[in-house]
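Work Package 3 committed the consortium to producing structural models of liganded targets before the mid-term review. Because experimental data for this complex are still outstanding, the team generated a predictive model from sequence and the ligand definition alone, so that downstream docking and mutagenesis planning could proceed in parallel. The input record is reproduced below exactly as it was submitted to the modelling pipeline, together with the SMILES string for zinc ion.
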Amino acid sequence: MASGSHYRSPSALLRELGITEPEDIRIEAIAEYCNATIIYEPLKGSAARILGFGDRAFITVDSQSRRGRQRFSAGHELGHWMLDRGRVASFMCQEQVFASEWGSDNPERRANRYATELLLPDFMFTPRAKDQRIIFETVRQLATAFQTSLTATAIRLVELGSFPSIIVCHTAQHRRWFIRNSDVPDAIRLRDKPGAWTVANDLLRGGTSSEGPTDVQADGWITHPDSRNYTLCEDSIRLGDHWILSLLWWKNEKQLLDLEEDHDF
Ligand SMILES: [Zn+2]
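The resulting structure, written out as tokens with the ligand in place, is given here.
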């Protein structure tokens, strides 16, 4: 069997190792198979780092962070080892790249994607997400099953779930990134900032309690001129000190169906 440190995609690794269930995705064993040893130590100023020399790498993960975060950090560093070797010998990755780097293409985003596809593989995730509501309660259940972080799991639920939805990450100043399910048409565009009557707006203004899934007027989120005539289900949470993560779900798909009709001349 081939092993060692040459590039392998997440799905190739899982296949080679015969892994078919979430509880068998043991990141330490998978990394070891790729000549990367994972070490847990208290870290200051970064969530994880990797040092590679020649064919060997050592990944250090902050022993003080939560298990889901540790696994994601380790998968992220393994992604650097697989994707970026030869160009860089070491990475130190801040906690915030795991929340912020999902938008534009760069080595951090590619490492995040690698971790996501390794820890939340399509063929395991899709059947478990089927017909599940696009809310954080579902995300938490799936994050427990896969032992993954909330952000990565929520992104997967939007991408691979059964219903049209968008996940958006905001700070008080900016929209950092968003990811849409392929059933959401391009005519649906997000506003730069959530509107006054959204849960996210309340959280961004320092509101402390999330209300859970809430039906809001679609124009709070969407620029399309007819949006005020429709509703969508918003579930927003605070993530760390600076981020607001929002799941937008067209539980009532009327807006999307009407848009489709507009284009069916
Ligand atoms: Zn990184």
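Reviewers should note the following from the model. The two ends are 56 Å apart (CA to CA). These observations will guide the Year 2 experiments.
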